Amino acid sequence: MKFEWKGVMPAITTKFTEKDTLDMPMFLKNIEAQIEAGVSGIVLGGSLGEASTLTREEKKVLIRETLGAANGKIPVVMTIAEQTTATAIEVARESQEAGADGLMVLPPMRYKSTDLETVTYFKDIASQTDLPIMIYNNPVDYKIEVTVKMFQELMEMENIGAVKESTRDIINIGRLRNQFGNDLKILTGVDPLALESLLAGVDGWVAGLVCAFPRETVAIYKLAKAGRAQEALEIYRWFLPLLELDISPQLVQNIKLAEVATGIGTEYVRKPRLPLQGNERQRVLKVIEDSLKTRPELPDYKNLTTMA
């Protein structure tokens, strides 16, 4: 399998049982739905995957089981989101030993590092693994921006080759592309800016609502990359109320409710998260229910010829 940072890569949710253990049957049901829809990779253990609540042993289980389901067809990427460099390196090594194909690395957690500290952190991790690395650039949620200047230093590392671009600044896609050309692969990480980002030339989409709607997500990507922007736009406009559920502090609960509605997930979250309550729960359920009533028919997107 040739590893490429491109296509739709679900930031998959972690499924739990009512007893707060991993729900592997439902997790694998979702993975199978993603693969059938035509995703290009699976990203495990991100913020949507409730990474901060997972034990290291649970992460190994998720990698092993996902690799088994993927069966070499698509890469499996593990997220590194740790408080210390030493722990991040240990998790990176464990992920490689468990069979992960790549890593998505977040900046230091719970500490607003300086530019130098951030670059050093990323380079220290990259120097201790052979796996390809995608940097997660999300200053909105993590208060640390990885700038073009910082990427110039990071690109000195042979295995740092991609960015999950979540600044919510479409102009930044052009900045990165103008500076690095195709040497740095760019994947959008903001669901309700996905089509705009694809038309601006990103290579892929690390998606959230794909967890509940894999076929629609891949169809938008394929249509956009095949030059059929109007058809992609029609699906995207239908999808937008759902996609906006991804840019919320309760994105995990929102997306898990959507997974329940489409039959490929459960609502259980791990504390301190709690299921949605009251008016907010009803609002999110209405968005999901209204969208399901008008769910579009999709073209034969799997057989489209896409541009690079």
Key attributes of the depicted protein:
Aldolase_TIM; 308 residues; lyase; TIM Barrel; 12 helices; DapA-like; Dihydrodipicolinate synthase family protein; single chain; eight-stranded parallel beta sheet; 44% helix; alpha/beta
> Helical proportion?
40-55%
CATH superfamily: Aldolase class I
Radius of gyration: 18 Å
Report mean pLDDT, rounded to a whole number.
Answer: 96
- The outline comes out as globular
- Report the structural category: alpha/beta
CATH topology tier name: TIM Barrel
Q: Which sequence of SSEs, written as H and E, runs from N to C?
A: EHEHEHEHEHHEHEHEHHHH
> How many helices in DSSP terms?
12
- Give the domain tally: 1
CATH architectural arrangement: Alpha-Beta Barrel
Strand content: 5-15%
Largest beta sheet, briefly?
8 strands, parallel
With strands numbered from the N-terminus, the spatial order across the biggest sheet is: 1-8-7-6-5-4-3-2
Task: List low-confidence stretches.
Answer: none
Q: End-to-end span in angstroms?
A: 18 Å
Q: Quick one: how many beta strands? A: 8
Q: Which class in CATH terms? A: Alpha Beta
Characterise this structure.
With 308 residues, the protein is an alpha/beta fold. It has one domain (7-303): TIM Barrel. Helices cover 44% and strands 11% of the residues. The chain contains twelve helices and eight strands. The protein has an eight-stranded parallel beta sheet. Strand 6 (160-165), helix 7 (171-180) and strand 7 form a beta-alpha-beta unit. Keywords: Lyase. Pfam families: DHDPS. This is Dihydrodipicolinate synthase family protein. It comes from Euzebyella saccharophila. Belongs to the DapA family.
